[in-house]
Each structure stands twice: as structure tokens, then as C-alpha cells.
Design goal:
Helices cover 42% and strands 0% of the residues. The protein is an all-alpha fold. The protein is built from two helices and no strands.
Length: 67
Amino acid sequence: MATDQVSPDLELPSWIVYSCIPLGSYLMCFRFLQVAWAFWWTGRLPHHDETRVEGVEIDAPAEGPAR
């Protein structure tokens, strides 16, 4: 942090750019602990439905192309 080095592309101090690695590792470990804690108490893992989009409601199923 004491140096005045900046990244050539972002023009940010280098310590900010390199702090992304430990920060990302911390967040990944935090999420792992969240899931492990929930699994310990409920026995269920989080599940995401890839076919459902939150906020979009479908009234009728889409029809195929007209023949």
C-alpha cells in the first residue's frame, strides 16, 4: 500500500487490484459456511430452478410454429 504503483489499464492503485483475490476467497468461504450450516440443521442443499425466471409470469404455454 505504501507504493504509488497503479495498474496500467484501470489506473487504480495496485493494492486495490490485488486485494480482490483474498476478498473473493473470503466471500467464497463465507458462502460455503452458510450452505454447510443450513445443511447441518435442515439436511437440504439449496436448489435453483433454471427454467423459472423470477418476476416473469406465464399465463399459457407457448405454442409451436404454425403449419
